[in-house]
């Protein structure tokens, strides 16, 4: 291993132990070539299989980047004619007073201000575009929207347009446990849990991805839709997905988002990207520990995986997220 990568690997292993994850992996692409591939631990904490390149992790909220690409496709295909269309135009079964002036832009940048109460009813936390809050309701709404616009689950749209052309065989929303699926550790004193879902329409958090294909997903965006010298996804679709769409006027310390991707423009207190990460970089992550970081300035994609629910650090979790991205950026300065 090159000395320049040792700090990243040590960091990944240290957090694995501190957070009591049973598994970790790290893969780095530089100039579209694998320069580091690291696997450690087991599929669960009860004498399970060793983690290998075939192991598939539940990437939790990182799945939003896959949904976000479908939003970009819907705009490119004319199924959504403007990101600033009111959401009420597409959800006539929801309370129009709660939706108010919420737009598609608000839904994909976490600035919609909507949540659900215990009864599943929509409630409003703040006016659309006024602030930023990470909630799950926008994912439900956008999933339903894309599925309705295309007349099929967005997962099938991705299979046709991206997964098959790129030869992905280890990226899918799983409904039954399999030998290559990594369990999720919720209580370190107990065995890992099966987190497969009951449906394949993309609504549930049951997307399992190998570390290699997670990195290749990132490289698709880095290369503006090209893979193996073929244009798999139109360049315009990729650019839409990773462009900052956060409304102007929200607090300067709040994150900036593309279509769910966290996009770096300048240091912001509440961003998950560190202050040494170059502008134009973007990242997606999940509660089980996966991180996909793309740094175009250095032509780098970094995929990191864990299998422990909740990122390490509790209320200081942003510090550790930023620390990882800063170390990654320092590695390639």
TrEMBL record:
Keyword Hydrolase among UniProt keywords: yes
Gene3D superfamilies per UniProt: DD-peptidase/beta-lactamase superfamily
Pfam families per UniProt: Beta-lactamase
Keyword Hydrolase tagged: yes
GO MF terms held by the record: hydrolase activity
UniProt keyword list: Hydrolase
Ranges for domain Beta-lactamase-related: 14-317
Stated name of the protein: Serine hydrolase
Source species of the chain: Guptibacillus hwajinpoensis
Lineage start: Bacteria, Bacillati, Bacillota, Bacilli, Bacillales
């Amino acid at each position: 291993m090159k000395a320049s990568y040792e700090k990243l690997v040590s960091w990944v292993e240290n957090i694995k132990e501190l957070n009591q994850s049973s598994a970790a992996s790290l893969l780095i692409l530089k100039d579209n070539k694998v320069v580091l591939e690291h696997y450690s631990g087991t599929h669960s904490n009860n004498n399970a299989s060793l983690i290998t390149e075939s192991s598939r992790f539940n990437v939790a909220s990182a799945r939003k980047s896959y949904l976000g690409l479908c939003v970009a496709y819907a705009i490119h295909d004319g199924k959504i004619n403007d990101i600033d269309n009111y959401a009420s135009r597409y959800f006539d079964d929801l309370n129009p007073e709660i939706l108010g002036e919420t737009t598609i832009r608000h839904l994909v940048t976490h600035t919609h201000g909507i949540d659900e109460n215990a009864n599943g009813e929509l409630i409003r936390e703040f006016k659309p575009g006024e602030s930023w809050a990470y909630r799950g309701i926008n994912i439900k709404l956008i999933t339903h929207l894309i599925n309705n616009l295309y007349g099929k689950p967005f997962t099938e749209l991705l299979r046709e347009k991206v997964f098959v052309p790129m030869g992905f065989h280890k990226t899918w929303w799983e409904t039954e446990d399999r030998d290559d699926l990594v369990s999720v550790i919720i209580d370190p004193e107990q065995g890992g849990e099966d987190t497969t879902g009951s449906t394949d329409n993309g609504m549930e958090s049951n997307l399992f991805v190998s570390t290699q294909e997670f990195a290749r997903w990132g490289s698709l965006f880095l290369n503006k839709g090209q893979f193996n010298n073929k244009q798999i996804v139109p360049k315009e679709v990729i650019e839409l997905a990773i462009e900052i769409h956060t409304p102007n006027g929200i607090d300067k310390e709040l994150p900036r988002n593309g279509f769910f991707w966290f996009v770096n423009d300048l240091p912001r207190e509440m961003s998950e990207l560190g202050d040494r990460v170059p502008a134009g970089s973007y990242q997606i992550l999940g509660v089980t520990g996966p991180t996909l970081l793309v740094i175009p300035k250095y032509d780098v994609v970094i995929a990191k995986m864990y299998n422990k629910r909740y990122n390490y650090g509790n209320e200081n979790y942003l510090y550790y997220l930023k620390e990882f991205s800063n170390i990654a950026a320092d590695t390639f300065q």
